[in-house]
Amino acid sequence: MTETSDITASLAIMTRACHEAGAAVMAYFRPGQAVDSLAEVREKGHNNPLTKADLEADALLKQRLLAACPTHGWLSEETVDDPVRLDRRQVWVVDPIDGTKEFIMGLPQFAISVALVEEGAPVAACVYNPATEETFTALAGRGAWFNGHPMRTSARQHLTGASCLASRSETRRGDWAPFLSEWRLQTMGSIAYKLALVATGRYDMTFTLTPKNEWDFCAGDLLVREAGGMVTHKTGEPCRFNQPVPKVLSLLATNGPLHAQLLDRLKDIPYSPDRQ
Length: 276
Prior knowledge:
Layout: H1 4-26, E1 42-45, E2 48-50, H2 52-68, E3 73-76, E4 90-98, H3 100-105, E5 111-118, E6 121-129, E7 134-139, E8 143-146, E9 149-150, E10 163-167, H4 168-173, E11 184-188, H5 191-200, E12 205-208, E13 212-213, H6 214-226, E14 230-232, E15 247-248, E16 251-254, H7 259-266
Parallel strand pairs: 3-4, 10-11, 10-12
Antiparallel strand pairs: 1-2, 4-5, 5-6, 6-7, 7-8, 8-9, 12-16, 13-15, 14-16
Helix pairs in contact: 1-2, 5-6
């Protein structure tokens, strides 16, 4: 692994870049109401909106991060994928706005997500919600922090009655109906933000059986694990990043003690189709 001092410097770089990108996107955000025409909302795919803010944040992050580390690879939701990244030892994995639908609606449930991946594993991460001014960071083997203070996952031991963050769109489709009587469910946009909230201990867990892209959860994966939790696929396997096809079928994140129980509860629940 790269020297700790280098990874620490990378975290500082990505945190500054996330804050800059956050300032850029907040110029378009309208709390409690939909964005106006200046945001230039359009659809890039089925139920997959794109705004001018997404593109401006992506361009800013790419300029800042690659200027600081020009030999790193790049994987971002809003940049055409370049297979050159597969040959790079270190890769920036970026979602300039995770939760674009909530951003458009005026809900403060979106985040800028950046991770530095080294040989398949995230080593530094930053998730920043500019609407709530919450910054979540982590370094592999060093811990995780919320607004500069150490954070830990919850201590809950029993799955029944656990607090769980559920996808807004999945809830509307009825995917969470089987769990309504088991857990205290809270709907939320942005899986990156959901993972960050689990890392703080405010919620016990979150999961999705709907396909997700690496940029959605790479930073959040490290946040949860460094805060004491666990993150795996439905199979129980850990996540690997900078893969040729950067998409997974499922993602489970818990405080740690609940993980085996959640895996067992979901073992017979089928995957959801890829609606993208």
